[in-house]
Design brief:
It is a single chain. This protein is mostly helical and 136 residues long. It has 2 domains: 68 residues, 434 Repressor (Amino-terminal Domain) (Orthogonal Bundle); 47 residues. The protein is built from 8 helices and no strands. The relative contact order is 0.08. Keywords: DNA-binding. This is Helix-turn-helix domain-containing protein. Pfam families: HTH_3.
Length: 136
């Protein structure tokens, strides 16, 4: 299964075995063994290198039904790309983006929870969150 998926993605990208082997830093013969299922237990490090160059995830190569990675410019319109570029130019880090994403997810979860709780109990509940910061 791993071999078939690697071969299929490799061919879709138009890579030869030699090209993918060079990109991933593995020998051509080893990659060929993987694709032909002669070697059916490659290391996660090797799979990570191969997956990266095939624009997919290790999980997909291992059999999960995840779609291959999609390039950002195929998904985000120009307005989104400009917003992201501006945020990065203004000093926003990956950690900041992750924190913002987590905040949005938490807020949506809370809204959904309160809405479903209100339906079940006929009233909304509020919750108090206490954040404790200790300096060393």
């Amino acid at each position: 299964m791993i071999g078939e998926r690697i071969k299929s993605l490799r061919e879709k990208k138009g890579y030869s075995i030699t090209k993918l082997a060079d990109l991933a830093g593995v020998s051509k013969s080893y990659l060929s063994y993987i694709e032909r299922n002669v070697q059916n237990n490659p290391s996660l490090q090797v799979l990570a290198k191969i997956a990266y160059h095939l624009d997919t995830h290790i999980e997909y190569l291992l059999g999960q039904e995840l779609a291959p990675k999609v390039w950002v410019d195929h998904v985000l319109d120009e307005e989104w790309q400009t917003l992201i570029r501006d945020a990065v130019d203004e000093g926003m880090s990956k950690g900041d983006f992750q924190a913002l994403k987590d905040l949005v997810r938490s807020t949506k979860w809370k809204e959904e929870y309160l809405a479903s709780d209100a339906v079940h109990k006929g009233k909304k509940k509020s919750s108090n969150i206490i954040i404790l910061h200790i300096d060393h």
